[in-house]
Amino acid sequence: KAAIRSVVRWGLIGFSFFVFLLLSIALVVSSAAALFLEARRTARDGSIKNLHSLYIGLAYVILVVVSLIFFAKRRRDVHIKLSKIPRKHVAIRREDVPKTVHKFISEEYLRSAAILYASQPVDGHQDGWGDPGTDFEGIRFRRRLLDTVVEVDEAARAIVPRLLPIRPHTRVLHHLRALTPLIPVDESGSSCLRSYDSVIEFARHARREPTEEEFVHGLQAASDLITIFRSYDRYRAEDDDEQERSQEGSPAPRTFSF
User: Fold this and answer.
1) Is 0.70 topped by the overall pTM?
2) For residues 215 and 144, is the Cβ–Cβ distance under 8 A?
3) What does the CA dihedral 8, 14, 16, 21 come to, rounded to 10 degrees?
4) How many angstroms from the chain centroid is the CA of residue 41?
5) What percent of the chain has pLDDT over 90?
6) Closest Cα to residue 217, out of 118, 141, 149?
7) What tens digit of pLDDT does each residue of 135-145 get?
8) Closest among 39, 69, 67, 34 to 54, alpha carbons compared
9) Which of 49, 88, 190, 219 has most Cβ atoms within 10 angstroms of its Cβ?
């Protein structure tokens, strides 16, 4: 139905254009004939060979020349504009193309998708990416590690809402220095914050891609930081509730653990 409506619509447009063109030509010819007859009638000798006829002829010659120039210019402009339109067309609806064309496009698309799926590696290895068949398949280690900075920053803002916005090249260790007292330190003086800062700096500036071991280590450090910040936020909320209950005369035990 849509194809029939399109054919009818364009047929009516072409027919109306042809009718208007013939009508315009007929009016021009009739007006020229009327003017020539009037010039002949007003001539002294009744002949068409007079100065008025020459003026009329020159006027219509100029009209024809100007019309042809305008037509040529318009045709050139349309050709230039059409040439700038991309020739590739993606059919987004079934009625945009004939059924046979739509079926052919669908079959070729499915064939290309099958070839692409079959050509994907199943046992290959690419530095900086998760191996196929593992838990990290399709994950780029560097990008995922840098994405955890936003997650850690959001968890830290639950404790310090006025924390300065983190910049792309700001070290995590400096950005979270106000929360350093909350982070446990082991016997060697290291902490999950320092480990996480080292991994992020490596992901930002190192030419070598992170290994899977370094990636897991960075994710674990980020998870530990988020757990600490959320635990402290929960502890602070419980402490506020305890103070409210103590004011009402019903104290509650305080617990805090990572």
Assistant:
1) no
2) yes
3) -170
4) 73
5) 31
6) 141
7) 888 899 999 99
8) 39
9) 219
